[in-house]
Amino acid sequence: MANLTIVGVDDEYPALELIRHYCDQIENVDLLEVFQNPEEALQYLQKNRVDLVILDINMPYISGIDLLLKLPYKPLCIFLTLETQYAVKAFELDVVHYLVKPVDFETFKRAVYKAKDFLQFKKSAEDKKHEDFIMFKSNYIMNKVLLKDIKWIQGFGEYIILITHLKKYMILERMSNFEENFQNLGFIRIHKSYIVLFSHISSYDANTIYLKGGEQLPLGRTYKKQLKEYFG
């Protein structure tokens, strides 16, 4: 497995030096950059995908939480902060760990290893060629859902709702990220707010997708061309 790529962001220089020092002692990690200015970090992260960001929360110009929400993708995150009152919000964002300063090396290392283990698990699941299920985190629990049971995925801002025959799952994930992660399994975007499995589509007309289960979903104008290509 490739090294875990990391970016550190903290407006206090000593904290960044500590991140450097700790990362230098952990095998198979690459600390690519550190930033005292969170706006500069945001610009970098918008252009460069990394596996893990280690973030302070209370920073000038933009908080660590807001920085994370502004990213076009969802890296793993460890909050490293003096603040304790944001722990609930952090876990709503599915962060890997919430570390309160000062942090000793062993605690820091365990948090990084936790990120490495999660990334390895995620990549191994995505790399399987003939997968008939997906795995995702919802309400702090890893869930396994068979593709045949998925009806559709609906977007709501920073969240998506995965709707199955049995229940609904709320997932902290952007539609674009879900589409990118699972497009090799036959998911297709039909609307800015809807993704379905192509194999579940029965037919379509100018404005509507008809699923084999009888459900009807809107068809966005900009997605018609792609749908026509799928149908050949």
TrEMBL record:
Q: One MF term from GO for this chain?
A: phosphorelay response regulator activity
Q: Does the keyword Phosphoprotein apply?
A: yes
Q: Which UniProt keywords apply?
A: DNA-binding, Phosphoprotein
Q: Per the database record, which ranges form the Response regulatory domain?
A: 5-116
Q: Which domain of life is it from?
A: Bacteria
Family annotation (Pfam families): LytTR (PF04397), Response_reg (PF00072)
Q: What SUPFAM superfamilies would the database entry show? A: CheY-like
Q: Does the keyword DNA-binding apply?
A: yes
Q: Which SMART domains match?
A: LytTR, REC
What is the recorded name of this protein? DNA-binding response regulator
Organism of this sequence: Chryseobacterium joostei
